[in-house]
Amino acid sequence: MHHAGVKSWSLAREEPRGTPSGSVRRDLREIILGAQDNLINVLATVIGVAIGSGSTKIVALAGLASGIAEAVSMGGVLYTSTSAERNLCRRGDGGAPSAAAFKDPVRAAIVTFVSASVAAAIPLAPFAVLPIRWAMLAATVLSVAALFSLGGYTGGVTGRRWWRDGVQFVAVGSLAALASALVGVALKTPA
Fold first, then answer.
1. By residue range, what is the domain housing residue 47?
2. From CA 73, how far away is CA 94, in angstroms rounded?
3. Domain-embedded: residue 14
4. Given phi > 0 = left and psi -120 to 50 = alpha, else beta, which region is 190?
5. Number of domains making up the chain
6. Which of 46, 57, 59 is closest to 139 using CA atoms?
7. At residue 151, does pLDDT exceed 50?
8. Is the pLDDT of residue 47 over 70?
9. Nearest to 45 by CA among 29, 27, 64
């Protein structure tokens, strides 16, 4: 498929640009990848480090470093993967083109980075204002609520049962947090 064909197919498939739902639907993959992944990643990091170290400062450092690194990494991954998919499609080697093949790699990277950055703040914020035990509880509750909301929204947009996707997002996050908590218990250092 040549470049002109790619452009015309892309324009025919896009949602109207003026509607917020069209923009969110167009960026749903990037929002989910960034938000779900970094929310789970930072929650698991702060829970494991909180249990293992008992230090709010160490938790904040580990959670912030993890959240920033993951946001930058995810943005980069979405840029390179979207670019690769577009290039394959333009060469005609990719078979039937997917909608992702026509996405702007820069937009994909930015949306993923912003989604991941916002999501990282959810489990990290309680550690800035609460004692460590209360912060762990608040981080868990806020993260579970955010994961359920993100999953529920995704299910609603994709036509699936919203609550089923909400539960699925929470289950994935819970497994990661549990695994990290077990590491924290196993490697706990004296305060």
1. 22-136+174-186
2. 25
3. no
4. beta
5. 1
6. 46
7. yes
8. yes
9. 64
